[in-house]
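ok trying again, last paste got cut off:
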Amino acid sequence: MKVGLIGFGSIGKRHYQNLTKHTTDVVVLSKRKDISVSCHAQSWQAFAAHGPYDAIFIANETFKHIPTLKKSLALKPRAIFMEKPLSHNLAGLTQMAREIKRSRVSLWVGYNFHFFKPFIKIKHIVESNKLGKIYYLRASIGQDLRTWRKRDYRQNYSSKRRQGGGVALDLVHDINYPAWLLNDRLVPEVAVVKKLSRLETDTEDSVETILHSERKRILVTVHQDCLRVPRKQSVEIGGDKATLEWDSISNAISIQTPTKIFRQTVLSERNEMFVNELKFFMSQVKKKKFFSNIDEAIHDIKIISFVKKYGKK
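nice, full thing came through this time. structure:
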């Protein structure tokens, strides 16, 4: 299979390294001159000339996603892998969804936590009814923007509102995976959006969002920040039979009933979920069948748009 990769930041590098286990024919489009890859294009014209492509990976800055997607569709690959989030705003997304479905080019937005071993285990527990009727889910993520990526945080798109920065978008995984765990769509109700730190950014660094699940009416609360030292991600799910807790520091899933506590450590090396995500994507491309999660990705952007508007009140 021939694969094009657009963008060569930290996630682009990770995809490249993982892709080389599937194919030796990877063309990287990047203006950077300090990269060592098998085939490097520094302009769109050069990148297009290397086609046709079976799949194209879009891993550039968030605000460039939709313009890059439009240009990639014109190259008529079988499938496109888009790094999350789909876009930095809602402009043109409904029309883009129609175009994707009309063209029958598969589009997959990379929600890699769907392939994270602890979360897969939690999803199985939820589906097994071990927790009983679920009343609430609390999700939390916090990590230090200053050490998040190798590049100076002030130069990164994460620090720039117009480029899709801010924790609400940058940590969209934590808006997305609660819906996946519950197998339901989330509806936002209330949000608090703040810049609490002295970080040199023009974006929010802390968000608290209250939502509910559409069908099951489960209360969902999500905390996101780019301040916490050290990084920690956690989930708590409360039901009428038991309560489940997990966090990224202990790597343990605990189920607490009125009389017992069951604890299981689920270890997962960080790159493993990206490897499994890529295996899924490449296997779907090889099947030559249309697949897409664009509606799910658009709904996440709608939630974040609500959060940002509500936070300005």
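cool. Residues 3-112+274-292 form a domain with the Rossmann fold fold (CATH 3.40.50.720). The chain has two domains: 3-112+274-292, 117-267.
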